[in-house]
Design a protein that fits this description.
Blueprint lengths: L1 E2 L5 E2 L1 H22 L2 H18 L8 H31 L9 H18 L4 H12 L4 H8 L3 H18 L3
Antiparallel strand pairs: 1-2
Helix pairs in contact: 1-2, 1-3, 2-3, 5-6, 5-7, 6-7
Length: 171
């Protein structure tokens, strides 16, 4: 075993995978991101995820696997940037005296991302009901009107969302 770019110990298969495909993956990501620094960061993060997830020796189609992992990471990056942009726009609409510190902004963005990850597996209607009740503070009746369902359906969707979040929440 040795280390990959000063990181944790790796197996020879990961080193070979990195050596043979890192340049290709970085180029593949650069085409999609149009940014060399982000492409290099995501390529590095992709190999870390591969290293932590499975043995590189068992990959039959390494480029396909790397592209699949990297594509998921691209989606995460776009989602994060979208949330950050929405948060920054909300902040810009506030008077300057209410502007949170950089630390608070970072914590809020991390919380938004955590909520986004929790709600990611929910259907659109269940997510809409959950957000209407939990974030917007609507009553079940008002949430039912907004989403276009009955109050009993709101209760069912809310229970489903709560169970989903409880099952996904780290211990």
């Amino acid at each position: 075993m040795s280390t990959l770019a000063g990181g944790p110990p790796t197996h020879p298969g990961v080193e070979t995978l990195y050596r043979e495909h890192h340049g290709w993956l970085r180029g593949w990501l650069r085409q999609r991101l149009n940014n060399q620094a982000d492409a290099a960061d995501l390529a590095h993060d992709t190999f870390i995820r591969v290293m932590l997830a499975r043995s590189a020796e068992s990959l039959r189609e390494p480029r396909h696997y790397l592209a699949t992992v990297a594509r998921g990471m691209l989606i995460d990056l776009y989602r994060r940037r979208s949330l950050e942009q929405a948060w920054l726009q909300a902040l810009a609409a506030q008077p300057e005296q209410y502007a949170p510190s950089a630390e608070t902004r970072a914590m809020v963005i991390e919380c938004l991302l955590a909520v986004d990850r929790l709600l990611d597996g929910l259907g659109a209607r269940t997510r809409a009901v959950f957000l209407a009740v939990q974030i917007d503070g609507l009553s079940y009746e008002k949430a039912a009107e907004r989403v276009g369902v009955s109050v009993s359906t709101v209760r069912k969707h809310l229970a489903k969302a709560m169970l989903h979040c409880l099952l996904l929440e780290p211990a």
